[in-house]
Design a protein that fits this description.
- By secondary structure, this protein is mainly beta.
- Helices cover about 10% and strands about 45% of the residues.
- Strands 1-3-2-4-5 form a five-stranded antiparallel beta sheet, with no helix packed on it.
- β2 and β3 form a beta hairpin.
- The longest helix is centred in the middle third of the chain and has 11 residues.
Length: about 110
């Protein structure tokens, strides 16, 4: 899986939120996005639910630095270095809808 995928965020990494500093000035483009097949199961957690959807933002990261940015976000979500799954979150490839079309993206979701 490529670290250069865009990143879908729905919580504290969104614009104006407390952890957005990890992304501020480190992305090329941001779009409003909707993730279908998931829903909020807490203020900072989403889980697979076929009939649900989650509103968020899609950040397109510069390919030269995307691995570094993703590693910083993994650390925030307490994923072990080099892993895509931790105790609280799993970084997973999902499909999101935006005004500019559909994109594959990384998202931090409840581990299945």
């Amino acid at each position: 899986m490529s670290a250069s995928l865009p990143l879908f965020v729905f919580g504290t990494l969104r614009s104006g939120q407390c952890n957005h500093d990890l992304l501020r000035g480190r992305y090329e483009k941001r779009l409003q996005a909707r993730l279908f097949g998931y829903e909020r199961v807490g203020p900072l957690m989403i889980a697979r639910r076929e009939s649900g959807f989650v509103l968020g933002e899609l950040f397109f990261l510069p390919s030269d630095f995307s691995a570094e940015i993703i590693a910083d976000c993994d650390a925030l979500e307490m994923l072990p270095p080099g892993e895509t799954r931790g105790e609280w979150y799993e970084r997973k490839v999902v499909a999101v809808s935006t005004p500019e079309g559909e994109f594959e993206a990384w998202a931090y979701v409840r581990p299945e």
